[in-house]
Amino acid sequence: MTDFRTISAGGRNVGVHKDLRVPMRDGVALVADAYGAADSEPRPALVALSPYGKELQALALTMPPQRRPSPMWDGCIEAGDIARVVDQGYVHVIGDLRGSGGSEGEHIGNYNAGGVSLGQDAYDFIEWVAEQPWCDGRVGMIGISYFGSMQLLAAAERPPHLKALFISGGHYDFYETTYHGGIMWFMPRAAREGRGGDSGWAFTDRVKSRMLETVSDEQVRARVAARLADPDVQAWPNLVHTLHYPTNHEAWFDIITNEFDGEWYEERNPINLAAQVEVPVWLQIDQGRGWTIDGTIETFNRLGGPKKLTIGSYPPMQSRPWVEEHDKMFRWYDYWIKGIDNGVMDEPAVSVFVEGTREYAEGAEFPPKPVEHRPLYLRTRGRLSAEPEAMDATAAAPDGFYQAPLTVTDKVEVLRWTTAPFEEAVEMIGTGAAHLFVEIDQPDTNLIMRFWDEAPGAARQLLTSAYLKASHRELDLELTTEGNPHHPHTRAVPVEPGVVEEYVLRIYPFAATLLPGHRLVAELSNDEPLSDEHNALLPPDAFHLPVGRPVTHKVYRDAEHPSRLVLPFTKG
Asked: Which three-class secondary structure string do you get for 229-289?
């Protein structure tokens, strides 16, 4: 029996069917809550699916939205503004994925990649919702991040009653979700295990490791031994613990033991499924989380049906409970689900917020304006210049820094190069590349770059970032173009200590106008500062695995070693 009740939310009466049992084709039942009007008039439904727990999502009815750095910000409350969904004439259906919350079944690996396809479950869930007396047969989806990835997984299965998608802040490239330029990112651990501003997955039993379930014991032992031999892993207690005791952290164990891209991540990668999606899709993402913007743009380019792309303003993290972008979402769904001609399809397909001018650039694709990739060279005395360095290495000695492991210091060394103040406004939109000629004295290191708009008086805002593990420096030459490098990340090639290598870092997509008097600042380190203006806006676990060995870096920027940034300057 389901429980129907009427509750008060924000001065509105909302009816809710609690603990609905939704049958899957293999006999497993998922559990959901359906929020609608207190009357029984059927409405279109917006479906939200995740492993974070429907009861956690219900806090959207009672908790005011929190922004980082609020300690009350919980990254897992992502299903949307329930009261507003109902007020706009939709039923909000929030379901627990198999194995989580009150739902039956088991979950093997990330996104259940070792078990039943989440897209298959979503198909069955959507079709069941469409048949209910409180639904008029028209269904869309709602939610950010994990909920957003679920939308593409569902649409690729082509459920007949799914009419459109609006995805904000989705994760699409499953390798890049955790490894940025080959460097491990810790935030997915927080989302799964519940740490540092996240409640974590709501699985009723453990999440089974896909590695432990599908790979031989001998292969698992070999993978574990190889990871434990990595000095970066050796120096991080959580990783050592997980590798020795995987049943306590099985989903995280799978990620740690698969540090290269390939079949493990590509099998159900939403980007690979995007071409199968036929319903209209609006993708939205905010600036400041470059890797997610990258995947969003790639997904947009692969979609074949009606589509829109909006890249919004900094800062990178939306409120929790998530309430932003609902105006756009309801315009989209009112058009494609309710059939209201509100002009949304008469507007440009791509809209990008340009930091600095705080205006939108619009067009049919990304970048929305023609761009020309031009270099800014790293010069002596910390300068960035359009002119290359004329002196050779004997006169233009390399910049350098020594970074001790964070086990023995809390100081992160940073090299900095800056332009002169711009005399005229300079606009850049798109991806870029950093070509760095670097010598290190170890077989590996991290190369982390961050790019800032520095105003007079030194106030600054992050524009974008770039990451590359030195042993992942190989380029995919078929995909790489000027200002748009691609790395396969399918193997590690140790660096020969003492040899100068050219490293090409991918600068994640961004859009900014540097106003007169402002400077562009490029910073290089091999770890991340423990606290600064940008990191305060991210959850506590949103940093990358530090280098676990002492490394001396020498950055050459002379006539024979033209270290440079290649940036997307707009034309005209």
From this structure: CCHHHHCCHHHHHHHHCHHHCHHHHHHHCCCCCCHHHHCCCHHHHHHHCCCCEEEEEECCC
Measured between alpha carbons, how far is residue 96 from residues 81, 246, 392, 446, 565 in Å? 17, 24, 62, 38, 46
Which of 521-530 are b and which e, b meaning 16 or more Cβ less than 10 Å from the residue's Cβ?
bbbbbbbbbe
CA distances from 489 to 258, 426, 457 (A): 11, 33, 40
Within 315-395, where are the H helices?
326-336
Query: With DSSP H G I counted as helix, E B as strand and the rest as coil, what are the percentages for the chain, rounded to 5?
Result: 25, 35, 45
Read off the pLDDT of each residue in 23-49 and give the average, rounded to a whole number: 92
Model pLDDT for residues 354-394, shown as the tens digit of each residue? 999 999 999 999 999 999 999 999 999 999 999 999 998 88
- Which residue type, as a one-letter code, is found at position 3? D
Q: Examine the pLDDT at 8 and tell me if it is beyond 80.
A: no
Q: Look up residue 74 and give its two tokens.
A: 């919980």
Of 38-42, 76-80, 146-150, the one with minimum mean pLDDT is 38-42
Please, where are the H alpha helices in 363-484?
Answer: none
Measured from the Cβ of residue 137, the count of other Cβ atoms closer than 10 Å reads: 14
Confidence band, pLDDT 50/70/90 cuts, at residue 459: very high
User: Helix H segments across 114-159?
Assistant: 118-130, 146-155
pTM over 0.90: yes
Identify whether the C-beta of residue 81 lies closer than 8 Å to the C-beta of residue 58: no
pLDDT recorded at residue 1: 47
Dump the DSSP string for 11-53.
TEEEEEEEEEEEE-TTS-EEEEEEEEESS---EEEEEEEESS-
For residues 149 and 165, give the distance between their C-alpha atoms in angstroms, rounded to a whole number: 11
Please tell me the number of Cα atoms within 13 Å of 469 on its side-chain side: 27
Which neighbouring-strand residues pair with 461? 453
Question: Is the pLDDT score of 2 beyond 70?
Answer: no
**Alpha-carbon gap, residue 205 to 214, rounded angstroms:** 19
- The single-letter DSSP state of residue 558 is B
Can the peptide bond before residue 509 be classed as cis, meaning omega within 30 degrees of 0?
A: no
Give the residues across from 86 on adjacent strands: none
**Radius of gyration of the chain measured on its C-alpha atoms:** 24
Lowest mean per-residue pLDDT among 140-154, 268-282, 373-387, 532-546: 532-546
Please give the Cα distance from 157 to 179 (Å, whole number): 27
What are the chain's domains? 3-203+265-347 (3.40.50.1820), 371-570 (2.60.120.260)
555 token code pair: 């950055």
Contact 445, 470 (CB under 8 A): yes
Name the residue among 122, 131, 129 with its Cα closest to residue 156: 122
Tokens linked to 391? 């002196």
Distance CA 60, CA 409 (A): 41
Cα–Cα distance for residue pair 214/253, rounded to 1 Å: 14
Residue among 515, 526, 521, 517 nearest 549 (CA): 526
